[in-house]
Specification:
Ribosomal Protein S5, domain 2, 3 domains, alpha/beta, about 25% strand, Rossmann fold, binds magnesium ion, 11 helices, binds thymidine-5'-diphosphate, nine-stranded mixed beta sheet, single chain
């Protein structure tokens, strides 16, 4: 049978289908199949090497053999260096994703300016903006004098040729979705193009020991467009996120072959670009007034750093039929669990009430240690009793209603003490005489309710 020379590639998951369909069988997305030229079958490419005669040999080496450690590129932007695991690794490929307009280009221009001023050859290739636009931004950021080499180019072949002759130490490609390779018939931005271009650039990074930073746009459901395929290829994936209406931005590592993935870097967007925020707790608690019912300060950890934030809950009578549950900044499944525990283990009747939960300032919390703070905020709102104004809360709640100890209790309490908090509602294990602030230990969720009742009487 004659081989068809087009295939249909799903733009959401990258799977290929011989026929067009409204819905991708693999990931279930609608309207994502796009026609592309079929790749040549394996082994028929012109460049496929012919191995005859001599048997192929696999070079095996010892695991323990010494490898010279190349020093990392330290940018001096501490928040960014920490997220990368202590600077950028030479020869690594990094993908930086984020919503349009969040500040990716600004961050990377600032990064390149810092690195270039250390006698390192840095090239910034913009596929989205014209040279003039990038220059204007650099001027506004006060970086016009930085020795960053600039190019506006979208052809992958031209870029690779140029890079090979320039021999840079670090390159930014802004963005991967604008590049196109003339080897493929598909349009720029399609999965096939993005995958092919990323692959070539990653290969270049490894071969020439040049750090390559790829900028990727994020689709409306939060994936870097052209999607998971690129995430697998690169060494590190960083997300730059934040609420457009707030000034601060968070850089988060979701994959890192050279460092931890739970670190965040906090920046503030101002007139002069992005400024580092060394003490995020004070930023997230900024504007916090008197103690109100429904507000709890959560002593959380983001990687190695303690970060305090305010969790707000509102428990209100349900207006119509099914009560509403709306969550911003936390997992709604986890909220359902905490509510179920409060109902079943504490006899707290809230199933017929609307519940709104918000993490102030736009921070996204993923730690289970926030359970107790969420429960405290909900109980506080439902009972109309304020939590101690100078108190923090943390602890994990299990389905049995027990409050379980969480890691790094010390750092949490120390950070709270540093910011002027005088007490904590925390797992029993943290109630230690040596604790820097007074700890009200709670063993179960019911204890928490009782503690709040006691506060109401005080
Ligand atoms: P940009 O870096 O172009 O975002 P991205 O590359 O992620 O699409 O950032 C654009 C936004 O940042 C824009 O809305 C204006 C704002 N901005 C400032 O507030 N101050 C500044 O100094 C700069 C350069 C940008
Ligand atoms: Mg940009």
């Amino acid at each position: 049978m004659a081989r068809s020379d087009t295939v249909y590639v799903c733009q959401a998951c990258g799977s290929t289908h011989p026929k067009w369909a409204g819905r991708c069988d693999d990931c279930g997305e609608w309207n994502t199949l796009v026609e592309e030229a079929a790749p040549a079958p394996l082994g028929t490419q012109a460049s496929a090497p012919k191995r005859r005669g001599r048997a192929a040999r696999l070079d095996l080496v010892d695991l323990g053999a010494e490898t010279p450690e190349t020093p990392r590129l330290i940018s001096g932007i501490t928040e960014l260096d920490r997220v990368c695991g202590g600077g950028l690794v030479p020869g690594s490929a990094i993908l930086v994703g984020g919503d349009p307009g969040i500040g990716k280009s600004t961050l990377l221009l600032q990064l390149m300016a810092r690195i270039a001023s250390q006698d390192t050859r840095a090239i910034y290739i913009s596929g989205e903006e014209a040279i003039d636009q990038v220059r204007r931004r650099a001027k506004r950021l006060g970086l016009a004098q930085a020795p960053v080499a600039l190019a506006a180019e979208t052809s992958l072949n031209d870029i690779l040729d140029g890079l090979k002759s320039e021999g840079p130490d670090i390159v930014v490609i802004d963005s991967i979705q604008t590049l196109w390779s003339d080897q493929l018939a598909a349009a720029p931005g399609t999965v096939a193009q993005v995958r092919a271009c990323a692959q070539e650039l990653v290969r270049f990074a490894k071969k020439r020991n040049c750090t390559v930073i790829l900028v990727g746009h994020v689709t409306k459901d939060g994936q870097i467009a052209g999607p998971r395929v690129v995430e697998h290829m690169v060494d590190a994936v960083l997300y730059f996120e934040g609420e457009r209406s707030h000034q601060f931005r968070i850089l988060r590592a979701v994959k890192n072959r050279f460092g931890p993935t739970d670190e965040i870097g906090v920046f503030e967007m101002g007139d002069m670009g992005l400024a580092e925020v060394a003490n995020p707790s004070s930023l997230f608690l900024d504007g916090r007034g008197e103690a109100n019912p429904g507000a709890a300060v959560f002593a959380g950890m983001e990687g190695t750093r303690p970060v305090l934030s305010e969790i707000q809950a509102l428990v209100a009578p349900a207006a119509f039929g099914t009560p509403r549950r709306a969550v911003v900044g936390w997992d709604s499944g986890r909220l359902a669990m905490v509510l179920a525990v409060l109902e079943a283990r504490c006899g707290f009747n809230i199933s017929n009430r609307d519940i709104f939960l918000n993490v102030a300032g736009g921070l996204k919390i993923t730690e289970p240690a926030a359970d107790l703070a969420v429960a405290a905020a909900i109980v506080s709102s439902a009972m109309d009793v304020a939590l101690p104004a100078k108190g923090v809360v943390y602890g994990e709640i299990s389905l049995s209603g027990d409050v379980r100890p969480v890691g790094r209790s010390d750092s949490r309490l120390k950070e709270a003490a540093k910011l002027g908090f005088t007490e904590a509602i925390a797992p029993q294990a943290a109630a230690d005489e040596k604790a820097p602030i007074r700890v009200r230990g709670v063993a179960t969720a019911l204890d928490l309710v009782q503690t709040l009742k006691a506060l109401a009487g005080e």
